[in-house]
Amino acid sequence: MSSCSKNITNAFSVVYNTLENVKKLMEYCDKVAESNGYCVCTPKFLRNNTDSNVEGWVYNKFFKIYQSSEDERLENGWRNGPLYVLEINFEEAPLYYLSKFEYEDIKEWRGGISPSAWWAFYFPTNIGDNRIEFKKLDDIYTLSIPKEAYKKSYWGLERVVFRNGDLIEVNKDNVNTNIFEEFNKLKEK
Question: Where are the chain's structural domains?
Answer without folding.
Answer: 24-188
